[in-house]
Design a protein that fits this description.
By secondary structure, the protein is an all-alpha fold.
């Protein structure tokens, strides 16, 4: 079959966006093989080019779906569209996706690559973006969804980063590839090279697309897996997949790129000047996730996805509190909020906020007072930001508060402040912000709590504080589940529970419920602790000794080996065990 050739003018018209005319735009493909086989690559290129032009004509003729996309810029207003019923309609009519394919035609020339763009954007707009950017109104998309799609389809570098993250999300959820396997190291090298070139350009280094590219590379890598060192992990939940935490929490946090992102935000005048819908909340979310992994304060203030949440203290708003949780938060001493020690007052307020969120989630899961995913997300992120913002003040600081930042306060540090703060972070990992096992800092929190307890003076602990200490030790015992260092907390619990004359699991649970406790998540681990307390090997008679090297079976160095987080070298795909109380 003779091979016809198109004129340069017709070929230029097809690349410029004008509709091709006639059949001369399609090139004939020779099918007679040549002896040396040199014609085969040319035939393949012609087939791909013809297929791409045919697909272009098909989308061009579908004028019913054509919509003019809104320019992706901070100044352009973006409306909120209602959810259509069909997923294909979501990705085409709502966002003008076929137009984006025309814009990316020079980037993805073949028909297969054009289909890859369709798969990526279909899954993104139907599953990923609504989960990352939840709206407080279930019938209306978040405004940032539309803006982010427009930025992705107009920037090939941002699309490449987004393609990788979408592929990871799909593979984690369904255990198979969406568009094919990707060479992680090769794509990462290309992305960094292109991003460095963009950063050298003053006009583009602080643009929305550039900032989103840096946001994407801060978590660019393989999904972290559960370490195999434990036979069982603490129960976590509910809402483990809210705001894509089950996926985002498994991605690495590259501190070098996080610092670069912070510098770009400062060049924009602060996160409050990042006005593009959805960008500032996304930066705030990733900041909280990275800070939780490292147990450090967030770099940015909390920015909600929707309206700023009104955090409530449960005891001041008893309406809607279930009977089983009527005493939650009441165990923390009221005099804390009148202390001249500002961090102690902040700790008391944060603990009450955590109690209020616990009631909110419990009622939502029971169907009593359901909330939208956007409302729950904003409440959870706000509470978690408060938890991480509490400053550390261990007792080893000579027992007194340093001159800065609270120069007006000269009283001694409250000896249970740091232990309570660490226990609050532990409870947050279990119920408020259920970070995935593996990257979750279970082992680091256990190390810090054990070090803090070793500096306590048991003679200075009152009976009321012994009840608080019981809750703190239970949190530590849950963190060290299936590790040898659990015996340290179990032994101390045995002594404290004997001093409080706790005779049954129900009595112990009533004490725990007066602080922070969620039945559906914590009861299983709590009952196991009670069973271990009643085992003969855990019995210990005598006074409490926090700094005793016994009965721990392994030194502290060994504990870091057994409980630390692993590196990002594997991909975790066992989903059922990670979401015991997941709400779709």
């Amino acid at each position: 079959m003779p091979a016809g050739r198109t004129s340069p003018a017709s070929r230029a018209s097809s690349c410029s966006g004008r509709e091709p005319r006639g059949m001369n735009n399609f090139e004939f493909v020779p099918v007679v093989p040549t002896p040396d086989g040199r014609a085969r690559p040319n035939r393949q290129a012609l087939v791909r080019r013809n297929a791409a032009r045919h697909q272009w004509k098909k989308y061009k003729s579908a004028k019913a779906l054509v919509q003019t996309p809104v320019e992706a810029s901070p100044s352009s207003p973006v409306g909120e569209d209602e959810h259509p019923g069909d997923e294909t309609q979501v990705t085409r009519s709502r966002y003008g996706l076929h137009r984006s394919r025309l814009a990316l035609q020079t980037y993805y020339l073949s028909f297969a690559q054009d289909e890859k763009v369709a798969k990526i954007m279909t899954y993104s707009t139907g599953a990923v973006l609504p989960a990352i950017m939840p709206s407080s109104n279930p019938s209306i998309d978040h405004a940032g969804n539309k803006v982010l799609v427009q930025l992705i389809i107009s920037d090939p570098l941002l699309f490449q980063i987004w393609e990788y993250h979408t592929e990871l999300h799909y593979r984690f959820k369904f255990g198979r590839h969406l568009v094919g396997q990707c060479n992680y190291l090769e794509s990462y090298a290309r992305i960094i090279e292109s991003l460095n070139q963009r950063m050298r350009n003053v006009e583009t280094q602080c643009s929305d697309s550039s900032i989103l590219c840096v946001v994407g590379v801060t978590t660019y890598g393989l999904l972290m897996a559960k370490p195999l060192e434990r036979t069982r992990w603490p129960s976590q939940g509910p809402l483990t997949n809210l705001n894509c935490l089950d996926t985002l929490g498994r991605l690495p946090s590259l501190q070098l790129h996080i610092d670069g992102l912070a510098q770009l935000v400062r060049m924009r005048g602060g996160i409050q000047n990042v006005k593009t819908p959805g960008m500032a909340p996304l930066i705030s979310l990733l900041d909280i996730i990275a800070a939780m992994r490292l147990l450090i304060p967030p770099k940015f203030p909390h920015v909600p996805w929707n309206d700023a949440p009104v955090l409530c203290e449960t005891l001041e708003d008893p309406e809607g509190v279930p009977a089983s949780m009527s005493s939650i938060g009441s165990g923390f001493p009221e005099h804390w909020k009148r202390s001249s020690f500002q961090p102690l007052r902040d700790l008391f307020t944060t603990l009450r906020y955590m109690a209020g969120y616990t009631v909110l989630v419990y009622n939502h899961c029971q169907g009593v007072a359901t909330q939208s995913l956007g409302t729950l997300t904003d409440h959870r992120n706000a509470v978690q930001h408060h938890v991480l913002s509490l400053p550390p003040y261990p007792n080893e600081q000579c027992g007194f508060l340093p001159a800065s930042p609270y120069e007006q306060c000269s009283e001694p540090i409250y000896q249970l402040y740091e232990s309570t703060r660490l226990a609050a972070q532990m409870y947050s990992l279990l119920c408020v912000y259920p970070y995935p096992p593996g990257p979750a800092p279970f082992g680091e929190l256990a190390i810090r709590l054990r070090k803090e307890l070793s500096s306590l003076n048991p003679k200075a602990i009152t009976d009321q504080e012994s009840r608080l200490l019981l809750w703190i030790l239970v949190m530590g015992a849950i963190m060290t589940l299936s590790t040898l260092d659990r015996f340290y907390f179990i032994s101390l619990l045995s002594t404290v529970s004997s001093q409080l004359q706790v005779e049954s699991w129900q009595e112990m649970k009533s004490i725990l419920a007066s602080f922070l406790w969620l039945d559906m998540t914590n009861d299983l681990d709590g009952r196991d602790i009670w069973d271990e307390l009643n085992h003969p090997s855990s019995k210990y008679s005598g006074s409490t000794r926090f700094n005793s090297p016994c009965p721990s079976l392994v030194p502290s160095l060994d504990m870091t080996i057994r409980t630390r987080s692993t590196s990002a070298t594997e991909i975790e795909e066992r989903l059922a065990a990670d979401k015991p109380f997941s709400i779709p």
